[in-house]
Amino acid sequence: MPYYRVVGEVPRKRHVQFRRPDGGLYAEELMGEEGFSSDSSLLYHRHLPTAIVKAEAVIPAGETRLEPNLPLSPRHFRTQELSSAGDLVSGRMPLAGNADVRLSYATSDQPSELYRNSMGDECVYVQRGRVRFESTYGVIEAGEGDYVVVPTGTIHRWVPDGTVNVLAIEAAGHIRPPKRYLSQHGQFLEHAPYCERDLRAPAEPFTAEGEEVPVLVRTRGGLTRLVYRHHPFDVVGWDGYLYPFAFNIDDFEPIVKRTHAPPPVHQTFEGPGFVVCSFCPRPLDYHPEAVPIPYNHHNVDSDEFMFYVGGDYSARQGSGIGVGSISLHPAGFTHGPQPGAVEAVIEAVARGVTTTSEVAVMVDTFRPLDLGSSALACEDAGYAWTWARS
């Protein structure tokens, strides 16, 4: 994270004695990235965060192997046709992925068990519903349109309020704001489409009681369920630059120009080998002779995974794309507006239409995306041929 926060009780200096009311010492836990050479936070526990009483390997219930996108083809997946069994962790249905990132969809009304992803950061986008994110850092109340970014190693759980639909972006490293939005010291610059005031983080400690508490842990070696002697939600205070936060897509301020701008103007986060972009309602391109719609384009180094979450998709009319759809346009394929869409939008502008209402989350990856069985199960098999329709 680009700025410092302090929550709850902490001593005046780091790594000095900090005593409980009964005279005992609070236990420090330093959470640090990149071998403690990057961002970190220091948490103060009532109990030892190292005290476990049991460990057992966990064998996943289903097959999660991904298959190459062959024959090479643009794809359309209808997530509204998917239903998962489980919670927002165990019920994730992998749609696509590679060595850098895994993209999954989940819908659930069940609380998850305590979970720690020690492979990389997660960015969970809430498409519908409301959910309470509980963690060792505290609580974040999240709802429709929120990205919730969870640092590697954070013990947490998801508690839905009714049914919640999410897209889970699981990285093999760290997810951060793009460097070009930040000063050399980490402050958001004036040209950035969002800033520190738009980010929501835990505001106070959150504690829970319990003994012999299981936590599901994901590592590169697989899944393990560790049983902690005391509930890990026992932190009385923390400070640092590393913590979970939420950012709502409605707080993204679109960057516009007189003619159509390419996707980097929509970039929201960056991860190892991928970027996350937010397409939000914005003014249409306003040059007198502008073509206010995407041109045919071929991102030669990226696969483009686009999740359509709201609004009207004028460029995709006639393709079958709608709210809940995901399109995958792989490198090696040129894509763009559907036949007739350019003319229709130019006519709409002539009638006085000045804005677009589309809302979408896009993940561009710099290695090819393989496909999961859940994606193929909800695929619109005729999508690839929609540009050839007269």
TrEMBL record:
Keywords: Dioxygenase, Iron, Metal-binding, Oxidoreductase. Residues 279-387 form the Homogentisate 1,2-dioxygenase C-terminal domain. Residues 24-248 form the Homogentisate 1,2-dioxygenase N-terminal domain. Its cofactor is Fe cation. Belongs to the homogentisate dioxygenase family. InterPro entries: HgmA_C, HgmA_N, Homogentis_dOase, RmlC-like_jellyroll, RmlC_Cupin_sf. It comes from the Bacteria. It comes from Nonomuraea maheshkhaliensis. This is Homogentisate 1,2-dioxygenase.
